[in-house]
Amino acid sequence: xxxxxxxxxxxxxxxxxxxxxxxxxxxxxxxxxxxxxxxxxxxxxxxxxxxxxxxxxxxxxxxxxxxxxxxxxxxxxxxxxxxxxxxxxxxxxxxxxxxxxxxxxxxxxxxxxxxxxxxxxxxxxxxxxxxxxxxxxxxxxxxxxxxxxxxxxxxxxxxxxxxxxxxxxxxxxxxxxxxxxxxxxxxxxxxxxxxxxxxxxxxxxxxxxxxxxxxxxxxxxxxxxxxxxxxxxxxxxxxxxxxxxxxxxxxxxxxxxxxxxxxxxxxxxxxxxxxxxxxxxxxxxxxxxxxxxxxxxxxxxxxxxxxxxxxxxxxxxxxxxxxxxxxxxxxxxxxxxxxx
Length: 340
Ligand code: NAP
Description:
Elements: E1 3-8, H1 12-23, E2 28-34, H2 38-48, E3 51-52, H3 56-61, E4 67-70, H4 77-86, E5 90-93, H5 101-114, E6 119-121, H6 129-140, E7 146-154, H7 166-183, E8 187-193, E9 209-215, E10 220-226, E11 234-241, E12 245-247, E13 255-258, E14 261-264, H8 270-273, H9 275-290, H10 299-318, E15 322-323, H11 331-334
Parallel strand pairs: 1-2, 1-4, 2-3, 4-5, 5-6, 7-10
Antiparallel strand pairs: 7-11, 8-9, 8-15, 9-10, 11-12, 13-14
Helix pairs in contact: 4-5, 5-10, 6-7, 7-10
NADP nicotinamide-adenine-dinucleotide phosphate (NAP) binds at residues 8-14, 34-37, 56, 71-74, 76, 94-95, 122, 124, 170, 270.
């Protein structure tokens, strides 16, 4: 039986996920779409034979919608996720789960009241083969204790709407989630260093930035976030352990040798770099919803990401090392993949 999905938000990633769910994911069908941009939503609805629905809330309540995908603007996520929980429907929400920590908590509280996990958050790096291989090796303990990580998150460029806080809240938040999942440890402190500013950054943006996180066992993580690096979209992760080192390789493209030089393609954007991870993320989400048991990044992970990125923002604004204190993990989330 096909899982009938309603998608709220037909912008860049919404369109991408609609195409994925329609043409790649097995056992799923997009039956309804909604967006504040009516024309674009109506057009895609017509293309794939889905229903256009005026409001996201109305879409969630449709009896023919089994599960919901939220890919709209960040501030709308919380409301749509709460409405889905109220209607006891599974919901896949693109990150962030909610803009504020309190919003994430309200979602966690509603799930706890229901006694069931219905929410998955779009932290797709957990489905990337490179990170999965690193996790497998770390879990095997062949390399001994993890001591430190050196990471980078580079984009070729951004437009004027990308501001200083977004470096953490929209970009580094992916590292925040995936590294916690790799290490199975929460963060206890954050610092942010603002190094020499590139002349390519517009006036509302300090670029690059360096985020330093510390985990419960004392692992130090440095993350360079540089969104005007010009040359491509480049994600680095090097994990230094007692008996060796493991790192992400670049995605496998072809290499050309010509005129005494070696040319290898670099990814141009996140869609290109993580396409396989998104495909896997959605196939496994659909399969788990059908099996009535979610196992991806959950609402608690969304809360932890929010509290950590809020601490990073405070660290950046104050120049201080900021302590991170989480509420106690509720029973509903204790056996989830992350800290199991
Ligand atoms: P986008 O292109 O701006 O799309 C957002 C869409 O939401 C737009 O069509 C926007 O309409 C619409 N919208 C605004 N308010 C709405 C409302 N009240 N109800 C329904 N739709 C509404 O942005 P995007 O890049 O696709 O990002 C969408 C979400 O995905 C964001 O939360 C972002 O953080 C997340 N994202 C995640 C990843 C990832 O790697 N996991 C990557 C990219 C984005 P208008 O255009 O008319 O404003």
